[in-house]
Amino acid sequence: MKVLQRDGQVMEVSFDEKEGKEAFWHTSAHVLAQAVKRLYPQAKCAIGPAIENGFYYDFDFGFSFNEEDLGAIEREMRRIIKESLSLQVYELPKKDALFYMENANEPFKLEMIRELPEGEVISFYKQGDYAEFCAGPHIVNVSHIKAVRLLSVAGAYWRGDEHNKMLTRIYGISFPKASMMDDYLHQLEEAKARDHRVLGKELELFALMDEGPGLPFYFPKGLILKNLLIDYWRKIHVREGYQEISTPIMLTKSLWERSGHWEHYRDNMYVTSVDDVDYAIKPMNCPGGMLVYKSKPHSYREFPIRCGELGIVHRAEKSGTLHGLMRARCFTQDDAHIFMREDQVLSEIQGVMRLIDEVYSKFGFPYEIELSTRPENSIGSDEDWELATESLKAAVEGVGKPYKINEGDGAFYGPKLDFHVKDSIGRTWQCGTIQLDFQLPQRFDLDYIGEDGEKHRPIMLHRVVFGSIDRFMGILIEHYAGKFPVWLSPVQAKVLPVSDKYHDYAKEIMAKFYEEGIRAELDNRDEKLGFKIREARMQKVPYMIIVGEKEKASHLVSIRQRDAEADKQEMGEMELADFIGLIRRSR
User: Fold this and answer.
1) What is the 3-state secondary structure (H, E, C) of 474-498?
2) Contact, 188 vs 39, CB < 8 A?
3) Helix or strand or coil: residue 66?
4) Which residues contact 69 (CB under 8 A, 6 or more apart)?
């Protein structure tokens, strides 16, 4: 695929590469804007970027636009694509660009151009009768777009500011092959069937309520699932030498100023005041971890010090970005902060990488690694950033893992390795991260006594494995479509007596399950067995225990499975002890 750069050079880029997708989808957004201007000449264009999956464009139509209007625009986009328009790039001085947009009556474009520095030379991309100022790059010809679909309409404030005008945002997707569109639409249908918000309600796991937008309410089964993840986390972290701590959910403004969060993260923080002192609800756990470290002197002999914290954090997410457990305002972060000497940096990073690999393998997740480098909004010296970045590179290369560079997407205090898991329908989710930090130890004046008897500065790792336990839970719900493996199922077995004559035997079985720590439910309603079995399958319970005359007489149980093929759903009779052993082996 040929891509036209701002300088007029043409490069060959694969659609599979990030740069290729961005150029392809950015061009598709321009085709969308061109179609809108042909159909609705009075519409005003705002912005139209490529996003993770496709593109969008914001418009001011001047009338009530809805999804029924998408069909006409999509058809016009296809006509434009058939015109096989080549893209051209040219530059204009700022004053000429302003003149062009004034004549075009595009107030949003004018506003953006006016904010550019005086003397700025502005690039434009043109395709047929449509031109737009843009840094590019774009594909060389719109005919490379072989499939396009407009997906939805949403409201969006200009520049994300609720005090600005509400615009109409149109989302779309496009591909260089029609077959790729078919695969994508199939994935959308799969994703819809697996939506964790729907399954969360159907399986009685959690709910989001009007009284607490973005603040999940966990029901008993959902809390069992969350606690199982936490129990697993604690087990492997104790094994790896982590000490668990807990820090307050609210800390003074001065602490957040010292850490740098007040300057770099203030918009995402909830604040309050107590006794005329300003506080912030913590959006991250690390400043509290600094104070725990400073609470006593340390020696080089103690290192590495691995402190884990299952900390509840709150972030002031905008209402339009909230999405069930995937994007919430409150969640539990499986944080850990590792304090170490310089000679331990490589081994500690690789130790965390091995732990992350073990965890993702347990859930059946393949994953990819990105190295995110220094962002514009950052703190610290060039030397520190270079050393930290090179250390992460050496660690990931040392374990033989491939990785990609994600320029400018590091934390404000250090570069990071991000771990993107791939679920059962091919979607990727960023979960784990390892951040190498030279800055907070300096800001909090952390030290330890070295072998030479002098004070030294420790180096610090921030890391998460799940990321947000709540979000990871949402990913698992969709990954498994609610059919959790036996060890993770909130209800592992459901006991189904054929009639009330067998309730006593069913209760004996339940008592044995409780004794053995097996999570089971008894369905003793006056319903037909077939109804009970169908309902248990709808609830995605792994095993159904049928209890009738034959089972009571022989002191056996008849087992049916959730996932077996239709003609093999019945496992047959077995000793209760054998079934208990089967459950135990799944742990």
Assistant:
1) HHHHHHCCCCCCHHHCCCCEEEEEC
2) no
3) coil
4) none
C-alpha span between 360 and 472 (Å, rounded): 11
Q: What is the DSSP string of 345-362?
A: HHHHHHHHHHHHHHHHHH
- Which has the closest alpha carbon to 487: 227, 164, 107, 266? 227
CA distances from 169 to 161, 234, 323 (A): 14, 44, 18
Specify the pTM.
Answer: 0.83
Find the helix packing angle between 220-239 and 469-479, rounded to 10°: 110
Distance between CA atoms of residues 202 and 483, nearest Å:
12
Alpha-carbon dihedral of residues 28, 31, 37, 40, nearest 10 degrees?
-70
Phi (first) and psi of residue 244, to 5 degrees: -90, 135
Buried b (16+ CB within 10 A) or exposed e, 29-40: bbbbbbbbbbeb
Which pair of tokens denotes residue 370? 């990105």
Q: How far apart are CA 172 and CA 193, in angstroms?
A: 21
Q: Are the C-beta atoms of residues 8 and 89 closer than 8 Å to each other?
A: yes
Enumerate residues 6+ apart whose C-beta is below 8 A from 465. Answer: 233, 334, 355, 356, 359, 431, 432
Closest to 147 in 3D by CA, of 31, 67, 250, 60: 31
Q: Which amino acid is at 452?
A: D
DSSP assignment, residue 501? Answer: G
The C-alpha atoms of residue 386 and residue 373 are separated, in whole angstroms, by: 9
Is residue 390 helix, strand or coil? helix
SS3 category, 239: helix
- Residues known to be catalytic: 286, 315, 333, 335, 337, 416, 462
What's the CA gap between 24 and 28, in Å, rounded?
6
Per-residue pLDDT of the chain (587 residues; tens, 9 = 90+): 899 998 888 999 999 888 999 999 999 999 999 999 999 999 999 999 999 889 999 999 989 898 899 999 999 999 999 999 999 999 999 999 999 999 999 999 999 999 988 888 899 999 999 999 898 899 999 999 999 999 999 998 998 888 899 999 999 999 999 999 999 999 889 989 999 999 999 999 999 999 999 999 999 999 999 999 999 999 999 999 999 999 999 999 999 999 989 988 898 999 999 999 999 999 999 999 999 999 999 999 999 999 999 999 999 998 878 899 999 999 999 999 999 998 999 999 999 999 999 999 999 999 999 999 998 888 888 888 888 899 999 999 999 999 998 888 888 888 999 999 999 888 889 999 999 888 889 999 999 999 999 999 999 999 999 999 999 999 999 999 999 999 999 999 999 999 988 899 999 999 999 999 999 999 999 899 999 999 999 999 999 999 998 888 888 889 999 875 544 556 788 899 999 999 988 77
Q: Could you report how far apart the first and last alpha carbons of the chain are, in Å?
A: 49
